[in-house]
Amino acid sequence: MDFVVELPSSQGKTVIWVVVDRFSKMAHFIPLPHLPSAKTLADLFIMHIFKFHGFPENIVSDRGVQFVSKFWRAFCTLVGTELSFSSAYHPQTNGQTERVNQSLEQYLRCYVSDNQSTWSELLPWAEFAYNNATHSSSGRSPFFVVYGLHPKAFSFSGSNSPVPSANSSVLRFSEVWSLVHDSLSAASLAQKKAADKSRREAPQYKVGDLVWLSTRNIKLKIPSPKLGPRFIGPYPIIAIINPSSVRLQLPPNFRISNTFHVSLLKPAANTRHQSVPPPVLIEGQPEYEIQEFLDSRHVRGKLQYLTRWRGFGPEENSWVSVDDIKADRLRKQFHLKFPEKPGGPVAPPREGGNVRKSALPARQGRPPRCHRRGRPPRRLLPVPA
Q1: Beta partners for 321?
Q2: Residue 79 lies in a domain
Q3: Averaging pLDDT over each range in 149-153, 195-199, 366-370, which range is the top one?
Q4: Could you tell me if 245 and 87 are in contact, meaning their C-beta atoms sit under 8 angstroms apart?
Q5: For residue range 84-132, what is the model confidence (pLDDT) as tens digits?
Q6: Distance separating alpha carbons of residues 191 and 79, to the nearest angstrom
């Protein structure tokens, strides 16, 4: 199950809840005024799905707040339904629903491109047309798989009745059905062509393989994402979830799910390994060498620098307080290049008072370093690609 969101308002509805049965491929399109809470989702499930199909053994969804909430997890556990979630940043793991979403959106785009406030009226027609169409994997329609027959589709003989209003309604329904059927067929064909064009064989990974991870959906601490690395790592695979999803051993400062679709990975061939430089003990305190400063900011009255550490990749960049930094030369170089940045000679005044600048002791002949509080996590990193 999934949601199609950010639709133009149609009779007060802006969201479509899409539910697809994995076996029969039968789909239900339920219009909603907005994204529901977990409690409301449970009520909607009883109202629209349970009455036709009962409780399923398993539900596949993305990691939306409704689906990962404690209430929804507890509700599904109590009714005997197992939950499965799509891979991080790859909702196509929820494949069937994603494909239905694409067909539905393409259909709506074909039919309501001009008058976008009528889509909610067309959902019953779209649902019937989808469930009455032959599915490529089974060779049968969802209706036939579930009921053993095809419900009678809309037909209009063209003859008129003595009731003009009934004639006009049936004529309008006939036109709508024809357009809906054609639009949904065109949408399915366009989707198939696009998928066939981009489809390629996924590499066969195994536990222990090193892979590069795409930064497409990862927010790195760098000034400009456009100029940042396209891949980071490599990281070892610690588990194979299924042929299309793996689990990686990520740095501890990555607060994201470590399960990824294989489309976000690429093999790390002939990878050279380099040990992270160990800290230097100065006056009993471990310190790490700074390579350069990338940015600066004020946080709660304290000046901080976005620090790149020598021997570490961009994923280890971190903000460090000026009080923990002993790198006058690098700070001067940074502010010569960016005098308008916080802490520089022409930085704009900061609201809420001035920052007290204290002189830092000079470190003649020593590389710029930082106390333990600002160090990156201790681990081994290969040389970046």
Answers
A1: 304
A2: yes
A3: 149-153
A4: yes
A5: 887 555 545 445 666 676 767 766 665 555 456 778 888 888 888 889 8
A6: 36
Cβ proximity of 1 and 20 under 8 Å: yes
Is the domain of 112 the same as that of 245? no
Any idea which of 13-17, 53-57, 114-118, 163-167 has the lowest mean pLDDT? 114-118
Residues 165 and 249 reside in one and the same domain: no
Q: What's the whole-number mean pLDDT along residues 139-157?
A: 83
- Is the pTM higher than 0.70? The answer reads no
User: Are both 9 and 158 inside the same structural domain?
Assistant: yes
Looking at the fold, whether 79 and 164 belong to one and the same domain comes out as: yes
Tell which residue, 100, 49, 101, 57, has the closest CA to residue 76. Answer: 57
Q: Same domain for 261 and 139?
A: no
Sign, CA torsion 7/11/15/18: negative
1-11 pLDDT tens trace: 889 888 888 88
CB count within 10 Å of CB 116 equals 13
Looking at residue 92, the DSSP 8-state letter turns out to be G
Residue 78 has φ and ψ, to the nearest 5°, of: -65, -30
Compute φ and ψ for 330, nearest 5 degrees: -70, -35
Question: Cβ(13)–Cβ(32) under 8 Å?
Answer: yes
Give domain status of residue 203, yes or no: no
Measured distance CA(258)–CA(250) in Å, rounded: 7
Q: Where residue 85 sits, what CATH number does that domain have? A: 3.30.420.10
- Which amino acid makes up residue 139? G
